[in-house]
Amino acid sequence: MRIAIISDIHSNLFALRAVLADIYHRHADKIICLGDVVGYGPSPNECVELIKERADICLMGNHDWAVLGNEDLAYFNTFAREAVLWTQVRMSPEAEEYLRALPFIVIENDCTYVHSAPFEPQAWTYVLNRNDAVFQFSALQTQLCFVGHTHAAGIFRQKNESYEFLIENQIYIDDQSKYIINVGSVGQPRDYDARASYGIYDREMKSFAFHRIPYDIESTQYQMQEERLPAYLVDRLSYGR
Ligand code: ZN
What percent of the chain has pLDDT over 90? Predict the structure, then answer.
């Protein structure tokens, strides 16, 4: 069983299509989306439609939750708030209905899937450093946990009482360790690599690998400019190129 895990699409259809094409060529058996399908980018309805069609499971993200009107927008920065408001008035009833039904956490076999973190998923906590990870490992009931939310790909490993941050592109899953794996962002990476990010977990091979996929950044930026989305959000898509 090869499980492709994607996250933080953020209404970027060009990036999502490129990632889905790559997943298709790598023959994944299953696609899990960790949420934030919408927010920031120009194509919310198209992205929801494609995720609905292709993802086996999709989790609720904080931007999805905000677009549905459930979040106090005071917690968002100016640009994110502007994009949420822009998205709210453009969502189709079908897309809204799909987002409304998304779960906050899914536990399946040896994996926990959640947008932000396993402890109180609705608190939208960021797992940014070793201390954050130590706390989240204590709330984790499975060997593996896949998260998004920070838009920065990386792996935290717990082995006995030691905790490490791994920067490898591919790891072998060791039976004695637990892992919190951030798969990065499809539609708006913030880890100084502008390419779309996602990962594949191979249960039989006991391995996990990150994949970085180039996509047509200029076309997404052009659409965002046409829609008059904030210039800062447009520029951020090409950071690290
Ligand atoms: Zn996000």
Answer: 95
Give distance in angstroms: CA of 150 to centre of ligand 1: 7
Distance from the CA of 38 to the center of ligand 1, in angstroms?
A: 8
Give strand ranges (E) for 54-172. Answer: 57-58, 105-108, 111-114, 144-147, 154-159, 162-166, 170-172
The CATH number assigned to the domain with range 2-239 reads 3.60.21.10
Structure tokens at 177: 């360790």
For the segment 109-132, the average pLDDT, to the nearest whole number, is: 96
CA of 1 to the centre of ligand 1 (A): 27
- For residue 160, the CA-to-ligand 1 centroid distance in Å is 31
Q: What is the mean pLDDT of residues 130-148?
A: 96
Contacts (Cβ under 8 Å, ≥6 apart) of 177? 143, 157, 158, 159
